[in-house]
Amino acid sequence: MLKLFSKFILLLSLLSPALLFAQSAQVAIIIDDIGYRKSDAQALYLPGNISYAILPHTPYGKRLALKAQAKNNDVILHIPMESKNGKKLGPGALTSEMNENGIRESLSNAFAEIPFALGINNHMGSKLTELYQPMAWTMQFLRERDLVFIDSVTTSASQAEDVAISFGVPSLHRHIFLDNKLEHNYIRRQFKQLIRDAKRYQTVVAIAHPHPETITSLKKLLPLLAQNNVELVPISTLLNRKLTTPNLQINAED
Length: 254
Hints:
By secondary structure, this protein is α/β, with parallel strands linked by helices.
């Protein structure tokens, strides 16, 4: 009997960490579009492990990236990519007309400004992320520098994450946009969906923006995560975790 009990205890000690890990629900929230407005700084006062995506070569981008880094928040670059609707992209953009050298030069300049960024996600990009060759050149650049890629998923036909995986670039994709409508009731519904998805799938990536309405809502809603046993983690934590994630919820950003 004692021998059997000892074996049972040994089995529990081996299984418990795995069981605990499998049961933990984690979400990463990325605040995109940081850099053009002085008011974007308000996003840095959100509590917890918020991750920040900084637009390159913007008036406040580098300054706010340094502040986020000083607070030990994850920082990535929010690289503008060509969209189908022809919207103005801004500095540091990648387009389908660029060759490999052009893409590499544009990315190099962006990282020269914010060298501590962990990698990139796409700003807009409903056209470019559907094209294999520009994504291949982008992922080759990231792989050479041990950088990561987060697909914002602005088109259901995006090839970006698949190409990243094929090049060995650590990657994730966005599952839910929190603030496609700047109304508290809408943001609250999306946030509750985020919690439900986290409980079901264990890991979820959400994207929001530094609009005053969004910041006000998130300050009220973020405590709901802990109340529901969901952990807010940096994007790098989810990249390291590498668990199965849910199907995409497509809410085009551009």
